[in-house]
Design goal:
With about 100 residues, this protein is mainly alpha-helical. About 35% of the residues lie in helices and about 5% in strands.
Length: about 100
């Protein structure tokens, strides 16, 4: 399924693709759940982008929207994006008084 959705070349997998079973051939990363249907942005892509974002939650969301365009069209994915931004917020070190 991932090969088709991402339009990846399938020649190297040969007959492995015809074998029965639910496991994909080795070397194919799962796409993850689609968060933004307008632009086809997946949970995996968002998590990868968030790993490189810094700043406040609002700044990180803006960076995410600028890089992937998620949440910039219909806006229905914004609550999920905000949840993901909050969940991946970097730990802030406590400053000793």
């Amino acid at each position: 399924k991932t090969l088709l959705q991402d339009q990846l070349p399938a020649q190297s997998f040969g007959r492995q693709l015809l074998r029965p079973g639910s496991d994909a051939p080795a070397g194919v990363a799962a796409r993850g759940k689609t968060i933004c249907s307008c632009f086809g942005v997946t949970e995996t892509a968002i998590a990868e982008q968030l790993a490189h974002c810094t700043g406040t939650d609002r700044e990180r969301l803006a960076t995410l929207q600028g890089a992937l365009k998620c949440g910039t069209n219909c806006g229905s994915c914004i609550p999920e994006l905000q949840r993901m931004v909050r969940a991946s917020a970097p730990e802030t070190a406590e400053v000793a008084p």
